[in-house]
Amino acid sequence: MASDPSARAPKGTVDMLPATARVWEHLLHTAEGLFSLYGYEPIYTPIFEHTDVFVRGIGEATDIVGKEMYTFEDKGGRSITLRPEGTASVVRAALEHNLTANGQSAKLYYAGPMFRYERPQAGRLRQFWQIGVEALGMPEPSLDAEVIALLVRFFEAVGLPSDRMRLSINSMGDDACRPAYRAKIAAYIRDHSGDLCEECNRRADTNPLRTFDCKNDGCRAVMAEAPLLRDELCEPCATHYAAVKAYLDHLGIAYEEDPSLVRGLDYYTRTVFEVQAEGLGAQNAIGGGGRYDRLMEEYGGPPTAGLGFALGFERTMLALAAAGVEVPVPPVAEVFVARAVAEVAGDAFLICDALRSAGVAAEIDHQSRSLKSQFKLADRLRADYVVVVGPDELATGQVTLRDMATSNEERVALGDLPTIVLDRLGR
Ligand code: HAM
Q: By alpha-carbon position, which residue is closest to atom 3 of ligand 1?
């Protein structure tokens, strides 16, 4: 079995076992709570789309579309792609269902697996999990600052210390100023072709701005001297960018301007941003996003502003671990109901059921364990209390309630047990 490749999860994928899945759920609940304070509502789109949704949205010249998509023909002869990200799908769905018709705005969030055929390494998987937001129909720079603040506040809310993360921002310009800049960078690449790698030389024709993202030291040195879009923004883009920064300053959100931040998706216009975490090596971007005011038009819709971000679950986990942060996941059982002898099994079963009905996470043994083994199980489940059901106590309508942290034991009347337990649990 072990040497059979199909006995293992496919390369670049991982099974999210309960301990990790509970952390994922904790992050998800934190996101849901926080995002709802900012007016976001959930949306779930299909995990696969017509391939064209991503080709048109993300851009043919990107690594994602060019090299990383899981694309296949379905039995009906359609070209289908597993979603490599969420933005394109959400915008497609918003257009299909008229969520932004007649000048309406929409604030949406989503969570789930994404698929990219990348070379797996720490923090880089082929199936990974994202949580994201998309805000549609709102062109004002105050929204850019709000969305950026939300991303930073999410990481703070899950316990990542501010000094372990860095927020970078940039402006990618728009259709008025970017084409001329692209041409300038393409010319710059050609002028320095001898000092740039093959891939960067190719990018002069396909996607010149991605040259800023090359990891090769020689290319980085050349690109460090290249003209910056920041200095060539048209007046409306420059005004927008200045306003975003002013709003961030008002909110007290610390950021660094990184004029070489270009991101890996072609739909961006104006503001882009990324949060990088300490201690993650090369894959240090834990979340990122930007504005995409042209995307809905790509799908044949009316001009509609858009802005959003996505954060990666696995990289967030790595960043939290590197910072020594333990994610507080609730115990599997708050109360364990143990039976002293087999004869009281029926009573213990009913007591456990009554606790659950009262909203207490309660667990009981179903493997005929000894009392000692039941206590071991209670420990493993991290139960705060153990209720010991014994024949003598039952005869007087009572059970023993043991506080596992202090080892204190008290006799409690059966009828009062749920109320007392809830009280002890602070509910
Ligand atoms: P992205 O930067 O491609 O943006 O991905 C967002 C986050 O997903 C990254 O910061 C990273 O944490 C995680 N991620 C990406 N690829 C992988 C991978 N192969 N393995 C593990 N984690 C990964 C987007 O996806 C855009 N849709 C964000 C956005 C929303 N822009 C506007 N709205």
A: 264
